[in-house]
Design goal:
The protein is α/β, with parallel strands linked by helices. It is built from 12 helices and 7 strands.
Length: 296
């Protein structure tokens, strides 16, 4: 589950991911780069061999030639105990051979704090192979440093960073607000509202506090819980259907005089009231009767 979440995140936001997870090598000139996701399964030496699967390999090229191409091998690890520096080194060597490049940057994103082996040295008196990787230890990053970050990957990962338990709701709010501010695509907003909810894992009391503290007061400025979003979408669909039905009834029964009432009816957000008005229109004999229902 975590692997898939981060694969989606990196593929949807490759520039922001490299700037956040691998800033030491990515630099700040990725706006002119071409980022190409590569196949995850590496070629087998023999048919029937087990695939070695990378989490997310990205080839970064600069068409203007300002920098040589870089191959980033990004691996997400939920538990440090499952991480193998030997496995990562083999992946990188295989990719270097496959892509005919030595410019390979291994990056490991740890979701939980732990003891991570940082270097691998093979040899005796002399080192014949030395290997290290870029580390993004999310669980140790102070969330407050990224509270107002303009990098959407950083904002979405606020719940995975280090913060005091009493700050959980504020961290959740900062992540949701960042999503709304930095991502304008409604489908991606819904997709990554799920991401934030999954990693925030607010309990029922925290959900209630969040609703009371922010949803009513801030309205559209805050993304809110994903189930609130879905419920709002469902309610909007119901309201739209009722309004279309009311418009048709008003035109059939009262013509243009009835349609003049629509502007007032559209201000009513309560679906039960809209249902009452729709039923009342069916039995009303005069526009005045409908007006009385709207204002009472």
């Amino acid at each position: 589950m975590h692997d898939q979440n981060f694969k989606n995140l990196i593929l949807d936001y490759p520039v922001q991911s490299l700037e956040f997870f691998a800033s030491e090598e990515a630099g700040m000139d990725l706006s002119q780069a071409r980022i190409i996701p590569l196949r995850q399964e590496q070629l087998m030496e023999r048919l029937g061999d087990r695939f070695r699967e990378l989490d997310t390999p990205l080839l970064v090229e600069w068409p203007d030639g300002r920098r040589e191409a870089l191959l980033f091998v990004i691996e997400e690890e939920t538990l440090s105990s499952r991480f193998s520096i030997h496995r990562l080194a083999r992946y990188c060597l295989d990719m270097a051979e496959l892509m005919e490049t030595d410019r390979v940057i291994p990056v490991v994103v740890f979701l939980r704090p732990g003891d991570h082996r940082r270097t691998l040295r093979l040899g005796g008196n002399l080192a014949y192979l030395e290997f290290r990787y870029l580390l993004c230890d999310l669980g140790r990053l102070p969330a407050k440093m990224y509270y107002n970050s303009a990098n959407i990957v950083a904002r979405l990962n606020l719940p995975n960073m280090a913060y005091s338990p009493e700050d959980r709701i504020e961290i959740y709010r900062a992540a949701q607000t960042g999503l709304v501010q930095l991502e304008k695509n409604p489908e991606r907003q819904r997709k990554y509202a799920d991401f934030i909810d999954f990693y925030s894992d607010l309990n029922e009391d925290e959900v209630s506090v969040y609703r009371m503290r922010y949803l009513v007061r801030e309205g559209e400025e805050t993304m809110g819980l994903v189930n609130v979003i879905k419920e709002e979408g469902r309610q909007q669909g119901v309201q739209q259907g009722l309004l279309e039905g009311i418009e048709a009834l008003l035109e059939i029964k009262f013509g243009e005089r009835g349609l003049h009432l629509l502007s007032d009816i559209e201000k009513i957000l309560d679906t039960n009231r809209l249902r009452q008005i729709k039923e009342a229109i069916k039995t009303s004999r005069d526009v005045q009767d409908v007006e009385n229902i709207i204002w009472h």
